[in-house]
Design a protein that fits this description.
Elements lengths: L5 E9 L6 H4 L19 H4 L22 E4 L11 H9 L3 E4 L4 H9 L3 E4 L2 H11 L6 E5 L4 E3 L5 E3 L4 H8 L4 H6 L2 H14 L4
Parallel strand pairs: 1-2, 2-3, 3-4
Antiparallel strand pairs: 1-5, 5-6, 6-7
Length: 201
Amino acid sequence: MDKFEKLTGIAAPMPLINIDTDMIIPKVFLKTIKRSGLGVNLFDEMRYDSDGNEIADFILNKPAYRNAEIIVAGDNFGCGSSREHAPWALLDFGIRCVIAPSFADIFYNNCFKNGILPIALPQEQVDILMADAEKGENARMTIDLDAQEITTSDGQVIPFDVDAFKKHCLMNGLDDIGLTMEKVAAIDSFEKKAAEARPWV
């Protein structure tokens, strides 16, 4: 998993509330167990018409936001079914941070396990960031995880809270496997002692 330390990028404004996991990645694309290749189908039913053509007025199809790395969204982002494909699709598209007033719990935790930083803020602060995102590709936002600060394109700084353990994992690129591998020496030592104590096993 890639480390998340400091990100400066384009933020796409998506003021919809209750953006659920089926909107993020429709169920028809859940057949794969690969984490790559899902970005093209991110928000598929919102991005494309029935013939597969791009819908021009969808935010991520607009030239200014095609390379967005941040989404500023409405309340209850990631609700619905608990599919890990949702953060996989966001990450494969290039999204590393989602800012919203609130998140569904399972989606929120899945983001951290896949290298995405979800930031929950009061609505009035989200409104400030939404307005900044609406300025387009020249209005780049900075997310500093170490300092726990968001800096708007005009220099306004908004602090945010994040769980210390989740912060540690993101900043060090540690998913569940990575966390286990940190303990490999202790695991090897335990297995060696167990084998010596019970050679018949």
